[in-house]
Amino acid sequence: MSSKGKSSKGKALKGKALKGKEKVPEDNALAGKAPSGQAPKGRVPKRRSRAQEISAGGVVVHEGKVVVIVPTRLAADGSKVLCLPKGHLDPGENAQQAALREVREETGVQAELVEDLGEVRYWYRRDGRAVRKSVHFFLFRYLSGDTEDHDDEVEVARWMDLGEAQKALSYEGEREMVTLARAALERDR
Question: Which residues span the domain enclosing 155?
Fold first, then answer.
């Protein structure tokens, strides 16, 4: 699964986080174009309804570090994933509330909202159906708590240097969110 980024100015980006340009990732079965407006082989035609999911997550910072997790759920290829805390919105929640709850549940820490970082969009397949996923990310400042107090959906929660996370996170869109968080912290110094 490949992640896509969105700039803090609100322009959705697909594939690599390129300023204002959209790109469908090469490893995505939905990529490609066919002549005469026909969907290429493996692509879901536009007229068919597609599932859509909305999630929210956080980049929690403290003393030059960010909290990252290794979820118990493996990637589609069976590998472990290093990522930021995130999850679905519960009924009645907005994205900020969901991100704060997911941070608390998946990392064991309490945090306060600093700012909206943007959105990561990507496609994946579930039961043969294309699912469009949108994850809203927020920058949070650590207040209290211990990463050992995470929930059972997470194998490990730990602090990682911001610069290391920019390289080590499994998904490109999440690495971009850490880059945006780092820039926001520099700007506010």
Answer: 35-187
